[in-house]
Amino acid sequence: MLIRRLAVIGVGLIGGSLARALRNAGEVGEIIGCGRNRDNLERGVELGVIDGFNQDIGAAVSGADAVFLGIPLGAMGAAFRALRGCIAEDTLITDGGSAKGSVVADCRSAFGFLPPGFVPGHPIAGTERSGVEASFAELYQKRRVILTPTEATSDEALDKVERMWRACGAEVTRMSIEHHDEVLAATSHLPHMLAYSLVDALAQMKENDEIFRYAAGGFRDFTRIASSNPVMWRDICVANRAALGAAMDVYIAAMKDLAETIRQGDGERLLEVFSRAKAARDRYIDGALDSPE
Amino acid sequence: MLIRRLAVIGVGLIGGSLARALRNAGEVGEIIGCGRNRDNLERGVELGVIDGFNQDIGAAVSGADAVFLGIPLGAMGAAFRALRGCIAEDTLITDGGSAKGSVVADCRSAFGFLPPGFVPGHPIAGTERSGVEASFAELYQKRRVILTPTEATSDEALDKVERMWRACGAEVTRMSIEHHDEVLAATSHLPHMLAYSLVDALAQMKENDEIFRYAAGGFRDFTRIASSNPVMWRDICVANRAALGAAMDVYIAAMKDLAETIRQGDGERLLEVFSRAKAARDRYIDGALDSPE
Q1: Residue B3 and residue B25 in contact, taking contact as beta carbons nearer than 8 Å
Q2: Helices (H) and strands (E) in chain B, counts
Q3: Every domain of chain B and the residues it spans
Q4: Which residues of B touch A216 (CB under 8 A)?
Q5: What ipTM goes with this model?
Q6: What is the DSSP letter of A132?
Q7: Are strands A52-53 and B171-174 parallel, antiparallel or unpaired?
């Protein structure tokens, strides 16, 4: 058994699914939940996702050999501060945050140093639902999990977190913190910004009722991600603002260039851009890389 | 019977589906096809979509009381020039082009005036497939068709085209040419530009293999429209460049503003934008307006 006693801080879709998967795999002994919403924690016990809970983080992690932070990025700083002094030196700490630089900075500033047991992680998985009710053991099957060890992370801790995610069926890769944040800014955070700002721009147009009524073709697909949790995305934007800001600048420059090409009616160049994009999309998305969410 | 003899120029998804739907409704006598691809026309006859064909437009429209142009926007000018002198003064002419200003300009410049029988139209329907094989009689069921009569369009012609689309199961509305082009620029053309330029930007990044591998969440949905036909979209961009250029400017300004808000880490303002967008998206898209493509 990998983990004797696991503390899950934030028993939602991400934390709850990890608990279920580890339990199914027989890789965890006892699971203690912690979170702000007591009803959710009680439901977690009823569902057998957690064995018990304590709303005080210090008490919840007492005696745990591993702590998982499945909470919004904006709550990480306070959680790390609450952990301080309540865990053993070699306790494993890992998380599921969508940006990694900010989580590492929050950890360092809470502890005054980076604990060797801290392994920042990011499972690339999720649904539009949230809460322990939405969690399921198969969420991580064949999904990618990116681990971004700090300079202080011990080999032992890294290895254990890797095995933990593999036990859940995930494919684990390692990346530097900076590189993770750049890749995710481009492939996830930027598309969300495009969808949010498109819908918001249309909603603010004068005849927006009519505009949405005539929303054509792939508009529904295109804007689905604008229905994501606004609080979570606020946190992601603030946490990853440097990399996301840079990705947005690149994108804005590309859009300006495209607008100019359109205004000039340069059909040859437009055909080139659209054909290249279609080829890339068809190759990467519908082809070999069809599995990950 | 609404139409005795219909000439369909361009027997693809749009023209073929119109032919099938009118035939099913018993509102058309004979259907003559015309197009560049002889195999496609022969297949159209085999499938019973058209009764016969002639690759010469002048011959195909001879004796027709209605002509439908189901061809790319870039081919409209040449088609109107070929029609000139081959149709009666009161022959109905309508089309399925996604931009209307350019089609009207092409018609005016080919004829030297706007024929009273000309009713510019735009069925908001389509799939990712093309050619007569992809056509089906139900394509227009409960879809919106926008008609944009010119100042010369006769009431009789407008009424007949309206009845033609209703016979196909569509909901018909009227709009000015300029307004149509603005609404479609915002709701269809702009989203396609965002998707194309996002995929193209990512494809040109240094480690693009890795970037696509980690493409997260709604990325597949979000970029599906970047797999659309590049030639068709080149034509749409060139045809609607004024309205689309203006919509892109508005969008680029909104993106710049959002990038600045992110860089400042202004969480309160981000939450406001994302919440407003989510509310608009949920209200308009998943609610009452769920039927149209």
Answers
A1: no
A2: 13, 9
A3: 3-175, 179-288
A4: 124, 184, 187-188, 292-293
A5: 0.86
A6: G
A7: unpaired
Q: The domain A179-288 is classified under which CATH number: 2.60.40.10, 1.10.3660.10, 3.30.720.210, 1.10.1740.10? A: 1.10.3660.10
Q: Minimal CA–CA distance to A226: which of B93, B74, B64, B275?
A: B275
> Distance between CA A201 and CA A139 in Å, rounded?
34
Give how far the C-alpha of residue A137 lies from the chain's centroid of Cα atoms, to the nearest Å. Answer: 17
Contacts 24+ apart (CB under 8 A), A156-164: A157/A90, A157/A92, A157/A116, A157/A117, A157/A118, A157/A119, A158/A119, A160/A2, A160/A66, A160/A92, A160/A119, A161/A92, A161/A94, A161/A119, A161/A121, A163/A2, A164/A2, A164/A3, A164/A22, A164/A27, A164/A66, A164/A94
Give the pLDDT band (50/70/90) at residue A217: low
- Secondary structure of residue A28 in the 3-state scheme: strand
Rg of the Cα trace of chain A? Answer: 21
Task: Give the strand pairing for B28-34 and B121-123.
Answer: unpaired
Cα first-last separation, chain B:
29
Contact between B218 and A241 using a beta-carbon 8 Å cutoff: no
Nearest CB among B210, B223, B252 relative to A259 is that of: B252
CB nearest to B281's CB, from A74, A199, A237: A199
Q: What pLDDT is stored for residue A266 in this prediction?
A: 96
- Integer Cα distance of B72 and B231 in angstroms: 8
Token pair in block for residue B268: 């309160």
Tokens 């002889």, residue? B38
Q: Are B38 and B63 in contact (CB under 8 A)?
A: no
pLDDT of residue A216: 56
| Beta strand extents in A70-218 (DSSP E only) | 92-95, 118-119, 121-123, 144-147, 171-174
Number of other residues whose CB lies within 10 A of the CB of residue A14: 26
CATH class of B3-175: alpha beta
For A128, nearest residue in chain B (alpha carbons): B217
pLDDT digits (tens, 9 = 90+) for A115-171: 999 999 999 987 767 899 999 999 999 999 999 999 999 999 999 999 999 999 999
pTM for this model (two decimals):
0.85
Residues of A in contact with B126 (CB under 8 A): 217
